[in-house]
Amino acid sequence: MHIHKYEKIWLLFGIISLLAFTVTIGVSAFYMGNQPPSCLVTVDPTKLDTTAPFDQPGLKQVGEKDYELVIVASAFNYDVGPEKVIQVPVGSKINFIGTTKDVIHGFEVAGTNANMMLEPGYINTVETTFNKPGKYTIVCNEYCGLGHHLMFATVEVVE
Ligand code: CUA
Predict the structure, then answer these.
(1) ipTM for this model
(2) Cellular location of this protein (predicted)?
(3) Are 147 and 87 in contact (CB under 8 A)?
(4) Quick check: CB of 148 below 6 Å from ligand 1?
């Protein structure tokens, strides 16, 4: 079979482009610890009040400078325990464990790499270490209704 020279060139160009796109998408999807929006751990969103650990949202110390923060998001609030301000010493690692009672909410700790989506029925986690003292605001970055901009909590990192 005879293939014309230009046809060969374009065929090769096509194959190379396809490979380049595939690699770009495959790499960028996971770049810097990004996760695809698919969570595997499920929970019944109507039974959060009686399901551990979401029946007791809040901060738990699990090691030296090692914490877990259980978050229940709802329109338009983050339940992070009795206090709206979470305090940890500088250098602490917090594993954020979250879910939502109602609609999809965002969860971003401004100024850090902690950023995830909270979807009803699913548990999502993200971990970050706070090496600089200061106040870090937790914000909802997923439009969830009229009170979207009222959703916040604070992580205060102290010396
Ligand atoms: Cu919750 Cu926007």
Answers:
(1) 0.98
(2) Cell envelope
(3) no
(4) yes
